[in-house]
Amino acid sequence: MGFTQRRSQLKATVKPREEWWSRVFATPAANIILLAVADWRIVTPNRLTVLSLFLAILSAALILRGGYGLLIAAGVILQISYIIDCMDGQLARYRNVASKVGSFLDKWSDFVKFPIVILALSVEAYSSAQTVAPIILGISSVFLICYLPYLKMFVLNDFGIAPWKILSGKDFLQRNLRFFLFEESQLYLMVSIGLFFHSSIGALVALTVTQGGIAIAQTIRVFVLIKKSSK
After folding, report:
1. Separation CA 58–CA 53 (nearest Å)
2. How do residues 176-223 score in pLDDT, each as one tens digit?
3. Which residue among 24, 99, 171, 225 is least crowded, i.e. fewest CB within 10 A of its CB?
4. Minimal CA–CA distance to 85: which of 70, 71, 102?
5. 156: how many CB neighbours lie within 10 A of its CB?
6. Are 151 and 223 within 8 A, CB to CB?
7. Alpha-carbon dihedral of residues 12, 101, 44, 63, nearest 10 degrees?
């Protein structure tokens, strides 16, 4: 397939992402890489998913080793892992080979990767600070990251409350204010920034504070909506 035709078909298979960092960085980077490798038979959607998982685990291993150079490398690898995570679904649509197995593998790896990275951050920060604070922050981060999707799932299934659509508009201001919703892509960004500044505990604090704030706001919203519907 020629470059022009491949570019046209890839453009048609881009699935717009609302997450700020994905929209401005990861998805465009993924599309550029796919322009070169989309027709390579050795590159498959499931292999990309596994590669993304492997790179996230490698990033966690480098975090555990510690040291400024290794932490910077871990932050870079984590971003590469996220870019590849944005490639697998688009490649499946491009080749028309989407499958239930691939969808499961993609969602399963997404759920596994980030807690592994948080665990590594907690251990590295604890070894540097020798206090229990990083462990508490790590446990809190994992809890909050798991709590938010659970809240979204059960309030939709049990109470018919749709997900929060705040800042879902398409205008320039609303799209860029989505940065402050601190979704998945921004979580990866915050961790990488913390690693670049040799601050695992800083990354853990940022994760806990942002996800905690969103969890509180979402929970209050659900309570208010349920109370209104029960009148």
Report:
1. 9
2. 888 888 889 999 999 999 999 999 999 999 999 999 999 999 999 999
3. 171
4. 102
5. 12
6. no
7. 100
CA–CA separation, 94 and 12 (whole Å): 8
The pair of structure tokens assigned to 117 is 């990275």
Q: Which residues contact 40 (CB under 8 A, 6 or more apart)?
A: none
Tens of pLDDT along 9-42?
Answer: 888 888 777 789 999 999 999 999 999 999 999 9
Determine the Cα–Cα distance for residues 4 and 7; give it in Å rounded to an integer.
5
Q: Scan for tokens 């807690």, then name that residue.
A: 115
The 3-state DSSP class for residue 163 equals coil
Q: What's the token pair of residue 198?
A: 């040799």
CA dist 196 and 198 (Å) reads 6
- Residues 198 and 71: their CA atoms lie apart, in Å, by 6
Which sequence spans correspond to the domains of the chain? 3-229
Q: For domain 3-229, is the CATH number 1.20.120.1760?
A: yes
CB of 62 closer than 8 Å to CB of 74:
yes
Instruction: Give the number of other CB atoms < 10 A from CB of residue 26.
Output: 23
Give the angle subtended at the CA of 50 by the CAs of 205 and 87, to the nearest 5°: 80
